[in-house]
């Protein structure tokens, strides 16, 4: 069975192929991202639309992820991409800089849709917000520290080994193997 991963990000596809034994095909389809505070709701809506609009019988996989900062009431959460584009990573750090509690987590929900039923799988990685460090990664990686290093300081292999998406994909892979 081929699983179609709906993303324009080849890095996400490489990560998915590390967890899934089935064939993973990249589908570059720009589904409508609904506005919701719920990552699962966003991912399921995207998966259903992508399945219907791409006109094939193979199931699809869509992920939605975000940075959830405790001191900011979970902001930017599902709005992480928008906040990154409009406010910027440095300003998110500035918002948290004076806070005593800088705990945060990256969360990801992977939605699988086969035309009949949608299933979701969540992964999270705990950390804290710090002053920007490191040259790697993308997005909030320079301000998100996990186990003493920012994601931007980690090698791709180390980052993928602890990533929120990887944790969600591992849960999906376990479910897929049983079903």
Automatic annotation (TrEMBL):
Detail which positions bind substrate.
7-12, 65, 138-141, 159, 164-165
The Gene Ontology terms for molecular function here are: dITP diphosphatase activity; ITP diphosphatase activity; metal ion binding; nucleotide binding; ribonucleoside triphosphate phosphatase activity; XTP diphosphatase activity
Domain of life the protein comes from: Archaea
Its catalytic activity? dITP + H2O = dIMP + diphosphate + H(+); XTP + H2O = XMP + diphosphate + H(+); ITP + H2O = IMP + diphosphate + H(+)
Q: What class of enzyme is it?
A: hydrolase
Q: Please give a single GO biological process term from the UniProt record.
A: nucleotide metabolic process
UniProtKB keywords: Hydrolase, Magnesium, Metal-binding, Nucleotide metabolism, Nucleotide-binding
Give the required cofactors.
Answer: Mg(2+)
One Pfam annotation, family name? Ham1p_like
Q: How is the cofactor bound?
A: Binds 1 Mg(2+) ion per subunit.
What assembly does the database describe for this protein? Homodimer.
Q: Which family does it belong to?
A: Belongs to the HAM1 NTPase family.
Q: Which PANTHER family match?
A: INOSINE TRIPHOSPHATE PYROPHOSPHATASE, INOSINE TRIPHOSPHATE PYROPHOSPHATASE/HAM1 PROTEIN
Q: What role does this protein play?
A: Pyrophosphatase that catalyzes the hydrolysis of nucleoside triphosphates to their monophosphate derivatives, with a high preference for the non-canonical purine nucleotides XTP (xanthosine triphosphate), dITP (deoxyinosine triphosphate) and ITP. Seems to function as a house-cleaning enzyme that removes non-canonical purine nucleotides from the nucleotide pool, thus preventing their incorporation into DNA/RNA and avoiding chromosomal lesions.
Official protein name in the record? dITP/XTP pyrophosphatase
Cite the source lineage.
Archaea, Methanobacteriati, Methanobacteriota, Stenosarchaea group, Halobacteria
